[in-house]
Every structure is written in C-alpha cells, then in structure tokens.
Amino acid sequence: MNTLKMRKVLLTTGLLLGVGVIIFIVVLSVIYNGVQNDKNAVYDEAIEQAFAETPINSVTSSSLFNGRQSYVVITGEDEEGNTLYVFVPQINSEEEEDAEIKYVQSDEGLTENEMLEQWESNCEECDLDSIQLGVLNNRYVWEIIYERQGRLYFQTFRFDNGELYDSISF
Fold first, then answer.
1. DSSP string of 86-110?
2. What's the CA angle centered on 78, arms 163 and 62, to 5 degrees?
3. How big is the CA angle at 50 (ends 76 and 133), to the nearest 5 degrees?
4. What is the mean pLDDT of residues 37-42?
5. Long-range contacts of range 136-145, CB-CB < 8 Å, 24 or more positions apart?
6. What's the CA gap between 96 and 81, in Å, rounded?
7. 162: which DSSP letter?
8. How far apart are CA 34 and CA 124, in angstroms?
9. pLDDT digit string (tens) for 106-162?
C-alpha cells in the first residue's frame, strides 16, 4: 500500500473514531441529564407534599435515605423558626401505599454534628463516607457509613440518644 492510501485510511479511521467518541459522550450526557431531571422531580414532589402535610414552611436541604423503605428527607423550618426533619416515603409497591409522611423537630434528638462527635469519640482510625438521617422500623435513625481497616461499615444510631441501633460490615 502506498503512503497516500495509508494516510487516507488512517485519517478516515481517526475521523470515525472521533465521531464515535463524540456520539458516545452525547448519549451519556443525555442519559445523565434524564436521571438528574427524574431525581429533581422526586425531590420537588416530596417538598410539595411536605409543605402540604406538615408544619414546615421553608426548606434548607433534601436528600434520599434508602433503608427498608426509601424516604426523601427534608430539613427546614416551621413558622416559629424550629428546625424540622420531614420524611416523605417513596412508594415502590402496593405494600407501601399506606406509608405516611413523618416529621420530627431537631431538638428531639441529636444534631448531625452531635452524632458525628459521639461517633468520632468511639471510632478510632475510621474514615467517614457519609451520614444520613432516616427511618427504620418507624424509628428515626442516623445512618453512618465509614471504612475502618479495609472494612466497610453501615451503622445506624438512634436519633433520640445516639445509641447503636444496627450494624452491618463487609
């Protein structure tokens, strides 16, 4: 094969690979944006429900807790300025259709910082991954995920007093 043909083949191959990479990136971004829009819609709907069914009137944050049942956890304030945590269940089956929105005032339990201080004082050489407020078996819990000596721990602590509720490690 002469060098001119070789250059054309290489140029065509490079061009096709470049177009393929661009198409791949576009498809991934469309999928990502679709997932993000669905997530935002879930949060927006949960916040609307919280406003309608609880005393909360402003929102400072929202997150998703995945336990035996999933909840959108909303942090906000009521008219008196009290911090509230609202738990809006995400309905995934007919069994969960009777799940109701729950809420609790922050002063009825440990704050995130208080829970972290308590956990850190009892866990040496632990690397925190996340802390999340949630509901397990109709109890408010703090879920802490961390790594220690190469093992991954999922621990839940009672919201009201910080006592260990459940622990799983891998």
1. EEEEPP-SGGGTT---EEEEGGGS-
2. 60
3. 55
4. 68
5. 136/67, 136/68, 136/165, 136/166, 137/68, 139/165, 140/85, 140/87, 140/102, 140/104, 140/109, 141/67, 141/165, 141/166, 142/110, 142/112, 142/115, 143/65, 143/67, 144/115, 144/116, 144/119
6. 32
7. -
8. 41
9. 999 999 999 999 999 988 889 999 999 999 988 999 999 999 999 999 999 999 999
The pLDDT of residue 18 is 87
| pLDDT score of 41 more than 80 | no
SS percent in the chain: helix, strand, coil, step 5? 40, 35, 25
Supply the pTM of this predicted model: 0.74
Nearest 10 degrees: CA dihedral of 52, 53, 59, 62?
A: -110
- Write out pLDDT tens, residues 61-85: 999 998 888 999 999 999 999 999 9
User: Is 99 within 8 Å of 92 (Cβ atoms)?
Assistant: no
